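#help-structures
NK: newbie question, is this the right format to request a structure? protein is Nit6803 family nitrilase
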Amino acid sequence: MDYTKTVRAAAAQFSPVLHSRDGTTEKVLEAIAQAAQSGVQLIVFPETFIPYYPYFSFVQPPVLMGKAHLQLYEQAVEVPSPVTDALSRAARSYQMVVVVGINEREGGSLYNTQLLFDADGTLLLKRRKITPTYHERMVWGQGDGSGLTVLETAVGRVGTLACWEHYNPLARFTLMAQHEQIHCGQFPGSMVGQIFADQMEVTMRHHALESGCFVVNATGWLTAEQKQQITPDEKLQKVLSGGCYSVIISPEGVPLCEPITSGEGLAIADLDFSLITKRKRMMDSVGHYARPDLLQLKHTTQQWSVLAAAPPPPLAEPPTPQPEAEMTETYE
């Protein structure tokens, strides 16, 4: 692993085009082009940004959200599809590593999915959030451990988690144990208020310190008009405010740029990989500071499916030869 290079990264905070997969995808492509003008080599977009995060599920009771849920089904992204093809072409065209959250549709289910494209356009990772949070369980299915993996990319070893997965210490440790150099965090943003942003800051800075890696964290943004689209209730519109914290953090837990807490924009910073060694020299939580003789983590990497191939039946064994009975001659 190269700890001498410098990488320019961006956390993208934008509003989606509500109810439009194509509209939001176009905003992603425009943001990639904009970032390329600043020499960005890695860009991270918010949680389930394409087509949009299901904010409706946070402010509507399940019995009333059927129409909005079905609309999300209609606009969700299949993998592969024209959307993933367009993202792949953009990554390849600008030689940029791209991490984007989507609502993935497979058959009759939706999933909170993170896609990681390498700088040559290859889709390296399609992982699903392992456990949707609270209201999200009415919208998405569960992921599995196969996506908890750190991958070698053009910018280094990259790992990803979505939102409150960062409150699962074993999920984070799984990535840490694979020596991630850059961690990509994704949150919905525009929810819960300032307390959400405050908690997010603590969580992401702590992961940077504990993992000894850079953190690129992206959150979404809703305009006043979009909040009105989601709910006419002014009290609930206030619930869809705040909670934005798009930022880049060093392995020493220090923000490397001014966090974006409102509006749209790109948080850009240079990642000096020598800071990883500087931090881990003091405390490598999966190396010299670990005690595997006392504490170990079991990681199930199997990809689960409702259709599992049954093992072939065992071959019939040939009968075991029996010893011949002794012949006894009788004489009269």
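mod (FA): yep, format's fine, and the tokens are attached above. The chain has a mean pLDDT of 95.
NK: thank you!
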